[in-house]
Amino acid sequence: MLRDTTRTRYVLTPRGEEALRDGLPEDLLLERICRTGELPIGQALEALGRDLAVIAVGQAKAQGLLKIENGILIPTEQGKQARSERPLHSQLEEVRKGGEPGAAEILLKRGLIERSLVTERVASLTPEGTAASSRIAADDRIVDLDPETLRTGAWKERGFKPFDVKAPAPAARFAKKQPYRRFLDMTRRKLVSMGFMEMTGPLVELAFWNFDALFQAQNHPAREIHDTFRIRNPSHGSLPRAGFVKKVRMTHENGWTTGSTGWRYSWSSREASRLVGRTQGTALSARTLAGGIDPPAKYFSIARVFRPDVLDRNHLIEFNQCEGIIADEGLTFRHLLGILEMFAVEIAHESKYAFVPSYYPFTEPSVDLLAYSEKQGQWVELGGAGIFRDEVTKPLGVNIPVIAWGMGVDRLAMFSLGLDDIRELFSHNLEWLRNSRVVP
Description:
There is one protein chain. This protein has helices at 14-22, 25-36, 41-48, 50-62, 77-85, 87-96, 104-109, 127-134, 147-152, 155-158, 179-193, 207-210, 242-254, 269-272, 282-290, 333-347, 390-393, 409-417, 430-435; strands at residues 2-12, 39-40, 66-69, 72-75, 113-123, 197-198, 204-206, 275-277, 297-306, 318-327, 353-360, 363-373, 378-388, 402-408. Helix 2 (25-36) packs across helix 4 and helix 3 (41-48) crosses helix 4 (50-62). Strands 6-9-10-14-13-12-11 form a 7-stranded mixed β-sheet, with helices on both faces. Strands 2-4-3 form a 3-stranded antiparallel β-sheet. The protein has a two-stranded antiparallel sheet with strand order 1-5. It has 19 helices and 14 strands. It is flat and about 95 Å long. The chain is of the alpha+beta class. The mean pLDDT is 85. Among the domains are: 2-118, Arc Repressor Mutant, subunit A, CATH 1.10.10; 179-203 and 279-435, 2-Layer Sandwich (BirA Bifunctional Protein, domain 2).
């Protein structure tokens, strides 16, 4: 038999806890007034602070604890008595102990306490249940076999209680990695096993490496504040050694020795030294090429990047890119398509993918990799790729073909984990986290 009882429970709010600890505003004010007999309003404002003093005067006056004459605060007889008794303070103490305050409505109105209804359910035996329980014989059969039972031989007489192996058991909750973290680690292991070396670099990047070294003009729309997070303090950093800077500047202005005409504008070292939140993992490729490579060379990175996009099921403002480059004699566009196919099939686990011609300032030819999302019912872009232009590689001291790609590894994970919203990768849903598949 079940019986529900409902009772009212009161708890202190953060404001109530502060008042209990430090004192109610009117109590603090009365203490100061009663010590001197009276107190100018100006001194009260100075002693308690304007905000607290205004509350204290308003509450004390409304309760008849003081009067105001010519800007002077004077305690009433009721106020002098309240100074020693502090009735509302004792009411707050009662709430802290779990009791019900007599001035509950006043405390509620002032936001010092909160009220809620608590339902308690009590189970008890019915007369039939009581009668049935008396007929149940004690079962002394052995459940856990211990050394003492073996030594005395008691198990021979008592026997063993049978177990129902088909009975439901509580689900086991094993410790495991967060699904997206596990996917990133798997991607990293797969690339390392293919002979790629990992690139690392700063999250806050020089515009020189993020844009200029990649032949992205300083008046390119991607550099605007609505497409790039700029650092406020410090706003600029130091450019690398002059040799790189000079070659990149000349390439932008007139093409240098690359066979290009450049962008034909006056390049600014001030703009190149601006600090930004890294917008693309390709900045790591530029740094790696400038540091010197020994062909054949294969590099990758799983880089956190930042872009002020509008949040939706396919976009985040902070996400990961899987960036990579391969540098060697004789590399062609077909080699690049083979790498992209590997990402689609081996990592995203998608057989329905497509290559679409594209444009990037630092590659030519360029291509995008798309995969079809059955859950979304549409094609989703996974990333872009291409062959680095001479305007990128030559100023950095590289004179062989370099194929490059930048995959949205978050979107690859969506396909692999069967999600249709990129925000679910960072979900706090414990049920989803517990039930996620554990894969190598």
